[in-house]
Amino acid sequence: MRAHGIATATLAALVTLAVPGCSAASDGARPAATAPGSGAATATRAAPTPTPTPTRSYPLSTAPLTVPSVREHEAARGPGWKPAPDARVVVAPADAKALTDEARLLAGELRLGFAESADSRPGDVQLALGADDSGKPESYTLAVKDGKVKISGPDEAGVFYGTRTLKQAVATGGSAPEGTVRDAPARPQRGLNLDIARKNFTPDWIEARLREMGDLKLNQLGLHFSDDQAFRIQSDTHPEIVSTPHLTKADVRRITALAASRHITVVPEIDSPGHLGAVLRAHPDLQLRDAQGKAVKGAVDISNPASAKLIDELLREYQPLFPGGAWHLGADEYQALVVRDPQASFPQLAKAARARYGAGARVQDLATGWLNDRADVVRPTGKALKAWNDGFFRGGVTQAAKDIQVEYWTGKEIGARPPLEYLREGRKVVNLNDEYLYYVLGQPNRFTYPTGRRIYEEWTPLVLRGTTAVPARYGDQVLGARLAVWADLAGAQTQAQVADGIRLPLAALSQKVWDDRPPQATWAQFKALADRL
Fold first, then answer.
1. ω before 245 within 30° of 0 (cis)?
2. How many CB atoms lie within 10 A of CB 421?
3. Least buried of 203, 315, 412, 512, by fewest C-beta within 10 Å?
């Protein structure tokens, strides 16, 4: 309390000094007349003492208002920073190759100049790369001091996220507060999964989502572009399978270039050996048939070498088109494995399994072998490999490769495996919990549209299935999460309705994967902020 009293007294003194003529005679009364004949009447009047200019006192700053919120803000006293007509975004020559794109983007957004310069001046925003070991990947420091801003980080992504914080701070408060932000994501994978196979989403719409994701510090866009309904990307090796409308390769290159500028990895998915109906319409000879000769929807016959040949040709064709560091192999809902007795229903698959893996092998082993073979095609590119959780099976004589990340979405399939089984095996898991994170158009099969509030108030990355979290000791194995848009009933919503419907869920997800501690703001406060942004 003594320190508070001293500070209050000092502030009061400064205020007194700041008010002109604040003295005993400063109430507007005329000074008393000097008596005639007194010596004082002829004395030289002393020159008035100049009133000192006080030093302005600022309250302690508060953290900038952003989505997601910053993890740490060191408060300080000062005016903060706001854009000014002559301010610039500057990058030192040594960092220009790495950071010019980020600098020019921010300069355009805040209507600032741009300069490549080793020096900054008052009003400038400086972007800089620190040493590789100067922080966690994607971390950054944003310091506001002496009328300048400096954003630094160990990598380009971190510096970019610092520019997003500055942009949002200006949008919500008009300025960036004095002090230092130190920030980093809790999870390395944060994003959106988009089903463009069953519903055609235009390139402009996808690009708008990428810009939105970049501002939310999300870094993955999954593109599910092959399914029973359609195959949505131009193919040169198999043009016969491509649907109309579709993305051209030029469209995809623009999308991946924009994504890269926002530090977003586009993760392509050719789902197999199920969900291949569009491919099978052009190649009916590859269709899986049961013991009675009945065709199985969307499923290729994995005992037929021609099935693998076609899918591998597509995998090799598209690898250069998607330069990002991850690839999704699918593997979910293979219809041969959703019946009670796959061996009896599909004797050709059972026979092929025994031929490859021995007398004790089952159809699930053949499906696991298919997944591993497709992984072998992609693995030389160095991309991280992903597959849906219902493509991994317990028991069996063969196992899915250990480097394939488990994309956990459901626990409702026959032989469902709870998340703990994967975690106990040491596998890395990504959260796409269908209870909270599945936006299924038309809400079939008892799906309901996710809400931002439920995600914000109830869900965490450790809630992989249903509403129960896995033990915190497995936290490092849960790599992150994506909100997933599935177009089961494609006409149920327009593109604009989808964009509006996922806006708050995506914002809430961004908060919970960036900082998985309980949020400090209420949902009402968070929603109001997200609406402003």
1. yes
2. 14
3. 412
- Average pLDDT for the chain: 91
Asked if the model's pLDDT at residue 504 lies above 80, the reply is: yes
Distance from C-alpha of 148 to C-alpha of 168, rounded to nearest angstrom? 17
Tell me how far apart the alpha carbons of residues 505 and 524 are, in angstroms, rounded to a whole number: 14
**Phi, psi for 142 (deg, rounded to 5):** -120, 110
Under a CB-based contact definition with an 8 Å cutoff, are residues 223 and 326 in contact? no
Q: What is the DSSP string of 259-295?
A: HHHTT-EEEEEEEESSS-HHHHHH-GGGEEE-TT-PE
Q: Is the pLDDT of residue 38 over 80?
A: no
Yes or no: say if 406 and 478 are a contact pair by the CB < 8 Å rule: no
Q: How is residue 259 written in tokens?
A: 């994504």
Q: How far apart are CA 474 and CA 418, in angstroms?
A: 14
Token output for 6: 């001293």
Q: DSSP code of 54?
A: P
Asked if the bond preceding 273 is cis, omega within 30° of 0, the reply is yes
Residue 143: what pLDDT?
98
Closest by alpha carbon to 128, among 165, 100, 86?
A: 100
Q: What are phi and psi of 442, to 5 degrees?
A: 85, -10
Q: What is the pLDDT of residue 391?
A: 96
| CA 144/CA 180 separation, integer angstroms | 6
Q: What is the DSSP letter of 404?
A: E
84-114: pLDDT as tens digits: 999 999 999 999 999 999 999 999 999 999 9
Take residue 37 and report the two structure tokens written for it. Answer: 């004949």
**Are the C-beta atoms of residues 77 and 57 closer than 8 Å to each other?**
yes
Percent of the chain's residues with pLDDT above 70: 90
Instruction: Give the residues across from 89 on adjacent strands.
Output: 114, 125
pLDDT value for 492:
98
Q: What is the Cα–Cα distance from 367 to 398, expressed in whole angstroms? A: 10
Bridge partner list, 386: 328, 405
**What pLDDT score was predicted for residue 131?**
82
Question: Which residue's structure tokens are 């063969």?
Answer: 398
Tokens of 68: 């997601």
Q: SS in 3 state form for 319-335? A: CCCCCCCEEEEECCCCH
User: Annotated active-site positions, please?
Assistant: 333
With residue 354 as reference, give the H or E element that holds it: helix 347-357
DSSP H or E stretch at residue 145 = strand 140-145
Cβ–Cβ < 8 Å for 246, 344: no
* Helical (H) or strand (E) element with 191: strand 189-195
Neighbours of 48 (CB within 10 A): 6
Sketch out the chain's domains with CATH numbers: 72-183 (3.30.379.10), 189-519 (3.20.20.80)
Helix (H, G, I), strand (E, B) or coil at 296: strand
Sign of the alpha-carbon torsion through 260, 132, 426, 401: positive
**pLDDT, average across residues 442-467:** 97
